[in-house]
Amino acid sequence: MAESVKLTILGTEYSLRTNDEELLRELAAELDSELKDLQQKLPGKPPTTLAVLTALNTSEQHAHAQMNELREIERLAGEIENLCEVLEAK
User: Mapping DSSP to helix (H, G, I), strand (E, B) and coil, where does residue 62 land?
Assistant: First the structure.
């Protein structure tokens, strides 16, 4: 069942509902840390700009992770195919 959780990200409190409070808290802490790091690098930028830049960075990391997973799946599929050929030849 979804529970209500209060989180603070970049000084703003958010009330959210979640089925996994621990995961949400971890993600919020990571996001808050990334935003604060970016805020130090880009002082004076509004929070929305920082949020957009952080979202784009996170999206890029996610896309790279997906591509790496697909490459690994293809590599493993090729390995399985080779093993099947070896077994069929016996």
Answer: helix
